[in-house]
Every structure is written in C-alpha cells, then in structure tokens.
Hints:
Layout: H1 26-41, E1 46-48, E2 58-62, E3 71-82, E4 86-93, E5 96-106, E6 108-114, E7 120-126, H2 127-140, H3 151-172
Antiparallel strand pairs: 1-2, 2-3, 3-6, 4-5, 6-7
Amino acid sequence: MSILPIIKAPDPIxxxxxxxxxxxxxxxxxxxxxxxxxxxxxxxxxxxAIQVGVAKRMIVIDTSKNSVISNxxxxxxxxxxxxxxxxxxxxxxxxxxxxxxxILRSKEIKVKYISENKESKTSNFKGFEAVIIQHEIDHLDxxxxxxxxxxxxxxxxxxxxxxxxxxxxxxxx
Length: 173
C-alpha cells in the first residue's frame, strides 16, 4: 500500500467529473487501499479518487467511533434519498488545507454503492458520516466546497491557495 499525493486547489483536475466503474479489478482494489492509507496519513476522514488524480467514482470514509478504527470503501456511490432536514457543519477538505467553511447539507442520506467485496449495498447514514459522504460524492461530480459559499469567501480561499502553491514552488526551485 502507498500514500499518494493529494491534489490541491486550484488544480483543474478537481473539476473533472469522475467515470463510473463497470469492472472492478485488482487496480481498483489497490487504489482503494492506497486511498485509505493516504486519507489516514493526511490526516482526514474522507477522500475521493479524483483527489489523488484518478477520475473514477470511488471514495473512502472513516467512520471511527470511540477510538475504534473503521472505514468504508465505496465504488460508484450514489445518493438515492436525502432527508428534508438539514444540518450546518464546518467542513474542511484535504484539497484545501487549513481552509474551513460552514456548509448546509442533508442530515440523513441513503447511499447505493458497490463494496470492496464487489457486493451491491444500500446503507443509511446520518450526522457526520452523511456529511462526509455528501462532500466526497460532490468531488466525484467536480463540485468543491467553495461552490457552496459566497463568491467573496470563495475568492479569498482561492487567493490563499494560489499563494500557498506559489510559495511551495519557490521553496522547491
């Protein structure tokens, strides 16, 4: 298993819509394992394949509770139901390090996906887990957390990200 580089905004690959997976092979299963390692090393609670440069509909999330490590790997996740009730949470993103924004999302969702064991599943999620999954599925559709905030806040965050990127290039060069 490997830790993969996480793509940072404003890289245009983050806007690419990910492709459905018709056949699950060893490369997809290895990518899921690498995504788990990458997510924990970051550290984070969710990661989509597009964030590591792969335009496939795959996400991993951390559902740990009470110090028990648990994660879910999803292939072709699709939200098939959302509650009318919403919740507001401060969200961060591994592609936007140290940037946090308040976002309104459905409190409960039902997700249809294929597991790492190639089984079709339908599961209900609520609270923080629902937020993580909605966030990661947004990535698969080329949508970012900055798309859900005002243009003023969006521009401030993008300027910060561009400065960080320039600064890192100066250090390397």
